[in-house]
Design a protein that fits this description.
The complex is a heterodimer. Chain A is mainly beta. Chain A is built from no helices and 12 strands. Chain A starts with a strand and ends with a strand. The termini of chain B are far apart. Chain B is built from no helices and 11 strands. In chain B, strand 7 and strand 8 form a beta hairpin. At the A-B interface, strand 5 and strand 6 of A face strand 5, strand 9 and strand 10 of B.
């Protein structure tokens, strides 16, 4: 079955540091890949997505590239801010899985001023 | 993109009572909606897939009689937690499948249920 594995947190960084959150997946079909962000006490918001190999999703300074050869979709940001503190979820969905979204465990990010 | 409204955003209820959570698609006709549950500091777990006009499909281990799902129209799905107990306290989130955006999902803002 489909699955998503992402690095455990929490990740603690200083402001303006470089961020990488690793995400790898297992899928039987050709999934779409997503990163969602959840701020404290709120629901999930779509951060970025990629629908096919070599696509790069980007939003608010965050980027992730769909790497089929390594089955990865790592999230990166060149310079984090305190306001980026949140929980980040890597996820996939595909037709073979009935369009169900499979989430990673989530990675909590703390950014210190 | 589609906008999803989830209500209430938080609720406190007594043990043994039932709570209804609504999930509305404000600008998109959603034939399929999904209900998730999230325990503190954990990921989202899919509870069920809600299909308009038919019975919901529940994931393994989710009690159908405990978590009643109704998807009577293309814009509304409801989740009713029946005879709630403290262990049902959780964060419940709905989402809808938006086929117009490469099968991306739009999520509601979530409902925090506390059973006392």
């Amino acid at each position: 079955g489909n699955s998503v594995t992402q690095m455990e947190g929490p990740v603690t960084l200083s402001e303006e540091a470089f961020l990488t959150i690793n995400c790898t997946y297992t899928a039987t079909g050709y999934p779409s890949l997503f990163w969602y962000v959840q701020y404290p006490g709120e629901g999930l918001q779509l951060l970025l997505k990629a629908t096919k190999a070599d696509d790069k999703g980007s939003n608010k300074g965050f980027e992730a590239t769909y790497r089929k050869e390594t089955t990865s979709f790592h999230l990166e940001k060149g310079s984090v801010q305190v306001s980026d503190s949140a929980v980040y979820f890597c996820a996939l969905s595909d037709l073979a899985g009935g369009f169900k979204t499979i989430f990673g465990a989530g990675t909590r990010l703390f950014v210190k001023a | 993109g589609a906008v999803v409204s989830q209500h209430p955003s938080w609720v406190i209820c007594k043990s043994g009572t039932s709570v209804k959570i609504e999930c509305r698609s404000l600008d998109f006709q959603a034939t399929t909606m999904f209900w998730y549950r999230q325990f503190p500091k954990q990921s989202l777990m899919l509870m069920a897939t809600s299909n308009e006009g038919s019975k919901a499909t529940y994931e393994q281990g989710v009690e159908k009689d405990k978590f009643l799902i109704n998807h009577a129209s293309l814009t509304l799905s409801t989740l009713t937690v029946t005879s709630a107990h403290p262990e049902d306290s959780s964060f419940y989130i709905c989402s809808l499948l938006n086929s117009r955006t490469d099968y991306g999902y739009t999520f509601g803002s979530g409902t925090r249920l506390t059973v006392v």
